[in-house]
């Protein structure tokens, strides 16, 4: 059953178009992660926060990605990463046009 991974952290930037251009290779590499289905990138330049909402095929896939991603972010100097994994209520989510099967 697919699960949702919510990640956020403090980040100085870049944001907007600069973020999109600077992180394009990273975005493409995420597509290759085991069990990855999709991601929505999140950013709040005013609060200096970024992150994403991901959907993975299994909880194990999400846990493995979160561990790897937290370590990768630490390499960029980002130490306080908030990550939460949730089950998805498919019935209600479909009612609200969620892109899930």
Task: Walk me through what this model shows.
The protein has one domain (3-95): Alpha-Beta Plaits, CATH 3.30.70. The model has no long low-confidence stretch (mean pLDDT 94). The longest helix is centred in the middle third of the chain and has 17 residues, at 59-75. The chain has helices at 16-22, 24-30, 59-75, 90-95; strands at 3-10, 36-44, 49-56, 81-87. It is of the alpha+beta class and 101 residues long. It is globular and about 40 Å long. The protein is built from four helices and four strands. It is 37% helix and 32% strand. Strands 2-3-1-4 form a four-stranded antiparallel β-sheet, covered by helices on one side. This is Monooxygenase. GO terms for molecular function: monooxygenase activity. It comes from Salinicoccus roseus.
In short:
The chain is of the alpha+beta class and 101 residues long.
CATH architecture: 2-Layer Sandwich
The total beta strand count reads 4
Order of helices and strands: EHHEEHEH
The largest beta-sheet arranges its strands as 2-3-1-4
Structurally, the number of domains stands at 1
Percent of residues in beta strands? 25-35%
The largest sheet, given as strand count, sense and whether it forms a barrel, is: 4 strands, antiparallel
Q: What are the segments in which pLDDT stays under 50 over at least 5 consecutive residues? A: none
Shape annotation: globular
Helix content: 25-40%
Global mean pLDDT = 94
Total helices: the number is 4
Radius of gyration: 14 Å
> Helix- and strand-based class?
alpha+beta
In whole angstroms, the N-to-C terminal distance is 10 Å
CATH C-level category = Alpha Beta
GO molecular function: monooxygenase activity
Protein name: Monooxygenase
Organism: Salinicoccus roseus
Keywords: Monooxygenase, Oxidoreductase
